[in-house]
Design brief:
UDP-N-acetylmuramoyl-L-alanine:D-glutamate ligase, 6-stranded mixed beta sheet, 470 residues, 16 helices, globular, Rossmann fold, 3 domains, alpha/beta, Protein-Tyrosine Phosphatase, Chain A
Length: 470
């Protein structure tokens, strides 16, 4: 007999005739707009972009459905009297107009929150300041290799709201969740992973406390049957164990915890009451760095009751990693290796990238958009691991000052170059590199001062390397 999702049926019936607002007119919202129209909701769309900045495909869809739309600078001034509001992650629930509508009685939600609420199968969610994309991808890869029917979504994959009708209780949804998606959420995945929490997005969140509270929502609404996987080495996430409603599994690469997953000497081990079992050796996988072994440990913990360890090894043995994450771009004729780590938009992420290589004479290209982060902790790892530093972007001054301060207390000195364009950084790195060097592009900063996102930045870096480096 065909499975019927009763909860989804009820929601679809509820939509008929309801006043629904959709905030954000990206391409990814086309399926949502179509879905709401299909179930006869009265839809109004909002976007801060002007009409000539909105993708024509999206605008044509809005017009063809006869939907009202409000665009431009004061686009939310008409956000009044709605039953449901689907906010985009960039429109935080603390936005004044959303707060007013919530107080009036509107349901404020997101596409991804409704996926978790209405999905009939198992939902696994991953968040963290660093490592969440790799961990989410690993979990999805392991489960798919095992034979499960898996859906990948959230920050990566495809918009999943309109896929719910296809889902059954035997299916698994794997989600990468940002703080912006989690903020205001009132439902949690059955299995939740927090890779780590360090200062991030403080140019958007009002304070670090708001950022941390948003991350907590990934487990806050679990019941006693839920599972939470936490980084024992991270002081913030370690404390979450006290608030977890269900089971907690820890992982660590710095402490020999009695129970949980240990990353030690390039190996992953499982510990129960101080008895350890070997699971995986770094020699058996392609991913580099301790931080990636931590990501693997998370993925094993999340799938432990769904797969055998042999399935995990099979899934990981030929996994090269996710694009823009310590991605080998090219090895020159002089055996200089060029790595693209454009995803590194925070100091902690760049620190992990630097520590992934045993080589201690690297050339680092860094700098970009300023998210109001502290670069002091990055100074020593750069000094320890690099012979040259090439800087550009808004954060160049901050990074240089941190390095110069650190050099005052060290016998080691490094060369610092300043550039105005990414092309210039690649040319300088190409000129100063010698046989056997590693050039690492790991900005420790966001991309928005020069690019739309880290992917566009990484793609351009790769193009430059392939053009300039012989």
């Amino acid at each position: 007999m065909m499975y019927v999702n009763k909860k989804l049926e009820e929601f679809n019936n509820y939509l008929s005739g309801k006043k629904v607002a959709v905030i954000g007119l990206g391409i990814s919202n086309i399926p949502l707009i179509d879905y709401l129209n299909k179930y006869k909701a009265e839809v109004t769309v909002f976007d801060k972009k002007e009409i000539d900045e909105v993708d024509k495909t999206v605008m044509d869809k809005v017009v063809s459905h006869g939907m009202k739309f409000f665009l431009g600078k004061n686009y939310l001034s008409n956000l009044k009297g709605f039953d449901i509001i689907f906010r985009s992650p960039s429109c935080l629930p603390t936005t004044f107009e959303l707060v007013e509508e919530a107080q009036r009685g509107a349901i404020i939600t997101t596409e991804i929150e409704m996926v978790i609420e209405l999905c009939p199968g198992l939902v696994i969610g991953v968040t963290g300041s660093d490592g969440k994309t790799t961990t989410t991808t690993l979990i999805h890869r392991i489960l798919s290799k095992k034979g499960y029917n898996c859906f990948l979504g959230g920050n990566i994959g495809i918009p999943l709201f309109t896929e719910i009708e296809k889902m059954t209780p035997d299916d698994i949804v794997v989600l990468e969740l940002s703080s912006f998606q989690l903020m205001g959420m009132k439902v949690s995945p059955k299995i939740s992973v927090i890779t780590n929490i360090t200062p991030n997005h403080l140019d958007i969140h009002s304070c670090m406390e708001e950022y941390i509270e948003a991350k907590k929502n990934i487990f806050k609404y679990q019941d006693k049957y839920g599972t939470l996987i936490l980084n024992y080495d991270n002081e913030i996430t370690r404390e979450f164990e006290k608030e977890a409603p269900g089971k907690v599994i820890m992982f660590s690469s710095k402490n020999k915890i009695s129970n949980g997953y240990i990353v030690e000497d390039g190996k992953i081990k499982f510990s129960v009451s101080d008895l350890r079992a070997h699971i995986l050796d770094s020699k058996d996988i392609l991913l580099r760095g301790t931080h990636n072994l931590e990501n693997v440990a998370c993925s094993i913990a999340a799938t432990r009751d769904l797969c055998e360890i042999g399935d995990v090894r099979e899934a990981l043995k030929d996994f090269p990693g996710v694009e823009h994450r310590l991605e080998l771009v090219k090895e020159s004729k002089d055996r200089v290796k060029w790595y693209n780590d454009s995803v590194s938009s925070s100091p902690t992420r760049t620190m992990a990238g630097l520590n992934a290589f045993p080589f201690k004479n690297m050339i680092l290209i860094a700098g970009g958009y300023d998210k109001n982060l502290d670069y002091t902790p990055l100074a020593k790892p750069i000094l320890d691991n690099c012979k040259s530093l090439i800087l550009l972007g808004q954060t160049a001054d901050k990074i240089q000052k941190a390095i110069e301060k650190e050099m005052k207390h060290s016998v080691k000195k490094i060369d610092i170059y300043r550039c105005n364009t990414l092309e210039e950084t690649v040319r300088i790195a190409n000129e100063i590199s010698v046989k056997g060097d590693i050039v690492l592009f790991s900005p420790a900063s966001a991309s928005f001062d020069m690019f739309k996102n880290f992917a566009e930045r990484g793609k351009y870096f790769k193009e430059l390397v392939n053009q300039i480096v012989k």
